[in-house]
Amino acid sequence: MSSPYVWFTSRFDVDLSRPRLMGIVNLTPDSFSDGGHHDSPAAGWALCERLVAEGADILDLGAESTRPGAPPVDVELEWTRLEPVLRAAVSLGVPVSVDTRKAAVMERALDLGADIINDVAALRDDGALRVVAGHPRCGVCLMHMPADPLTMQQAPAYEDVVREVCGFLEARVAACASSGIDLARLVVDPGI
Fold first, then answer.
1. 97 and 117 Cβ atoms separated by less than 8 Å
2. What is the pTM of this model?
């Protein structure tokens, strides 16, 4: 009997009836979690291999820091950091997620074989919904983030945080559905 909790991604149907371990690979020099230790292609690739060997069910590659206070990077710099590691990671036999807010990076990553777009901006970049809708099997993780990384911690305020975060995510799911994105491709992340 198959599980009713399946997340459809480009190459894999991920059974979510049990927790899945996502290995995070930050390809930035200013990562909040590893201090930039994996910002070269060789170090990023080695970490991908190690995480899969240690049991990661999914790899998540990010080439722009989204830590509080992080400045944005342009599309070309983000892609330069991401492309060589993504090209190798898609050969490891697990779904590969790309953490990006930019439609141009999403499109290149999906064309190269990424399975999931993990977007802290919930597909609000101009063209992001179109790109994801144009790749009819990719998985999507929509995250709530009240602003951009540079400003998100400057006086965040909610009257009812649960209601407001849920409302934001419901609106983003509705935007995806209106763009023709199957709900079985979506997961949501309430953020921090």
1. yes
2. 0.90
